[in-house]
Write the structure tokens for this entry.
Amino acid sequence: MNTSITTIDNSVKSPVQSRKGIGGKIVLISFIVAFALAPQVIGHYYITLLIPFFAYAITLLGFNLLFGYGGLLSFGHALFVAVGAYAAATLALNTGMVSFELMLCAAVGAALIIATPIAILASRYTGIFFGMLTLAFGMLFYTFLNKFYDITGGDGGLMLPRPTLLGVNFESANNFEFLAGPFYYYCLVLVLLLGWIMWRVVHSPYGLHLMASRDNAVKATYLGVKVREVRAIAFIVSALYGAIGGVILGVNTGLADPELAYWVNSGYLVFMTVLGGYHEFIGPVIGALVFILLQDELSTVTQHWRFFLGVVLAVLVIALPGGISGGFRSAIHRVRTKGAR
């Protein structure tokens, strides 16, 4: 009897679920096609904005694993963005290796070494204690980057030369042609690949354990979840994603800048995540795109762009407490509800 009820229930639900799945795939494919065609459609200037967007999209996919799915808000996560940029620059300047793949490996290795002890310590705390501890480490690293001139270049940073991609050196292309051409598409593929990996992570048993530790750590512990371990892993994975984003930002500007580690940039990561909606997987990515475009448009209009940016973003957050993606979901739900009636 129970089997037959389950079978009937699945047969009723599956068409709806399949429609939702098809709709989501259509939207995803549409976005991929749009970004793939962007260099041929939109102006060159806006292409230069999309590369930082790719970097922040990757960073925020990792950050939201820690914040949205793990419930741990880090105020010093820009630390790992700077780690990625400096690891790539150090590799290139000290060894002469300019392979982008090797730069990514160096960034991931450096982030793993730095993030592991911090994760072991920080996973013991939650709430404001976790946030302030990560902020302290972030500012400590920022101070290190500014003071140790012989290693980090001080406040001038380190130059990051143009890398090769898959062993190909694009010497005939000027800097813009390189960034808007092969490097743009390389980053697009990287975003899609890392996005797919993160999707599998959050929908895996580990993802369920992480969300359980977020919702009720005591109950999760009684159910056998190793709360500290899953939180530490989330911190390390988010650090690796941040380092990869840092390499892209460094290559885009040709510089590993100590300002990448400053607490203001950590605040930007938090704000982009909240703006887009940390309850949705794709929300932080949407937040990054809106934030970058708003910042650029306002900075061309007025020198007081930070004030107006704050006003616009505050209005958006107040009007859409679930973020932009949450607002879209609510609007679609209302339309479907009215259609059903």
User: Anything to note?
Assistant: The first strand starts at residue 158 and ends at 159.
